[in-house]
Design a protein that fits this description.
Shape: rod-shaped
Structural class: mainly alpha
Strand content: 5-15%
Oligomer: single chain
Strand order of the largest sheet: 1-2
Number of helices: 4
Order of helices and strands: HHHHEE
Largest sheet: 2 strands, antiparallel
């Protein structure tokens, strides 16, 4: 008896590489890019002057949130990176908390 022949096409290595590596990698890259874009759009980066302006002019809810964020940024040492901060036209001098030579002046 003769065996029936089955015609199974052989896949080329390029086709297998594309199907199982490059195509899924492309999908992952697009997903990560979308995640990063929306994360960037959703995040708000404020500096110390922004927090001070919100404490002065914001509603009661905005004031305590801005005060909390200001305390966190001061704890991280962001005030040490900048020596002059402009707030609503006035200039505040910030010094390092460890420095005994100069004291911060009120705005």
């Amino acid at each position: 008896m003769t065996e029936p022949t089955t015609d199974i096409p052989k896949e080329s290595p390029k086709n297998i590489l594309f199907q199982f590596v490059l195509f899924p990698l492309g999908i992952v890259c697009v997903g990560v890019a979308i995640f990063l874009i929306f994360g960037r759009l959703a995040s708000e980066e404020h500096a110390i002057p922004d927090y001070l302006n919100q404490i002065r002019a914001g509603s009661s809810h905005e004031r305590w949130q801005a005060a909390y964020q200001l305390s966190k940024s001061l704890k991280r040492g962001e005030a040490n990176r900048r020596t002059t901060i402009h707030v609503s036209g006035s200039t505040c001098r910030w010094c390092s908390a460890r420095s005994a030579t100069a004291a911060p002046r009120p705005c």
